[in-house]
């Protein structure tokens, strides 16, 4: 299994928990969206644990699920996302399990096992948020098309375009993006042109602005970065062999 979380020490603790749990194997973690997509493409985990603060509109969950239907996605939900609307959107995006971010190790490992075996697990403390409200539709099932009310906006970009846009937002030029994603500069240039067209943007800066305003890109959580953080923190961190 692997994790997508902005806090290195949290990932270190999760890694330690997985290493000492029989039957589970730690593959690594990512701290950004494009690194998460790379991690899943390269390491192909069976289960990935995702911080809800990095996916407030469930775009990343949807891209991960569509890229690998067998992947089990577990969202660790923060209090700011603890709403009925978020749970419905997450399930519609392909999330298989939702647990509080403050859960303890025993409950998290049980959630991992239950999600892997049953492909659906909602922590009992969140059960009230999955109850059917009066005069409201039943919560969508995994694989169902998301409804407009459950997200700030639909994702118009492909997986690769999403990765390229993330790196453009980090200030990288086409050559730097090509090196990170193992693509040719011409391929990156083609993706950038497609991004500009799909977002009706004048240039790269305008595309990034539109993406943040529409919720395609999200700012890092307040606790995601410290002043001493280095650029390497946004890369894939594989498990030591």
Walk me through what this model shows:
Residues 150-215 form the HTH luxR-type domain. This is Two-component system response regulator. Keywords: DNA-binding, Phosphoprotein. Residues 1-116 form the Response regulatory domain. Residues 232-241 have a biased composition (Polar residues). With 241 residues, this protein is α/β, with parallel strands linked by helices. It has two domains: 2-129, Response regulator (Rossmann fold, 3-Layer(aba) Sandwich); 159-214, Arc Repressor Mutant, subunit A. The protein is built from nine helices and seven strands, in the order E-H-E-H-E-H-E-H-E-H-E-H-H-H-H-E. It has helices at residues 8-19, 33-43, 59-67, 84-93, 105-118, 159-169, 174-181, 185-199, 204-214; strands spanning 2-4, 28-30, 47-51, 72-77, 97-100, 121-122, 237-238. It has a seven-stranded mixed beta sheet with strand order 6-5-4-3-1-2-7, sandwiched between helices. The longest helix is centred in the last third of the chain and has 15 residues, at 185-199. The radius of gyration is 18 Å and the shape is globular.
């Amino acid at each position: 299994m692997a994790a997508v979380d902005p806090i290195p020490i949290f990932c270190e603790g999760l890694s330690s928990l997985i290493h000492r749990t029989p039957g589970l194997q730690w593959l690594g973690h990512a701290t950004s969206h494009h690194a998460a997509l790379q991690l899943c493409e390269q390491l192909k985990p069976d289960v990935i644990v995702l911080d809800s603060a990095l996916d407030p509109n469930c775009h990343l969950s949807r891209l991960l699920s569509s890229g690998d239907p067998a992947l089990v996605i577990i969202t660790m939900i923060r209090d700011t996302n603890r709403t009925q609307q978020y749970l419905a959107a997450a399930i519609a995006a392909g999330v298989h399990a939702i647990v509080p971010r403050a859960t303890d190790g025993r409950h998290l490992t049980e959630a991992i096992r239950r999600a892997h075996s049953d492909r659906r697990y909602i922590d009992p403390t969140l059960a009230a948020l999955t109850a059917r409200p009066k005069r409201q539709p039943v919560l969508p099932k995994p694989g169902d098309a998301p409804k407009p009310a459950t997200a700030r906006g639909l994702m118009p970009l492909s997986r690769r375009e999403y990765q390229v846009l993330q790196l453009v937002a980090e200030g990288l030029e086409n050559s730097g993006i090509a090196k990170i994603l193992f693509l040719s500069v011409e391929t990156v240039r083609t993706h950038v042109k497609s991004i500009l067209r799909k977002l009706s943007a004048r240039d790269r800066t305008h595309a990034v602005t539109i993406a943040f305003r529409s919720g395609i890109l999200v700012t890092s959580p307040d606790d995601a970065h410290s002043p001493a953080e280095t650029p390497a923190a946004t890369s894939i961190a594989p498990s030591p062999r």
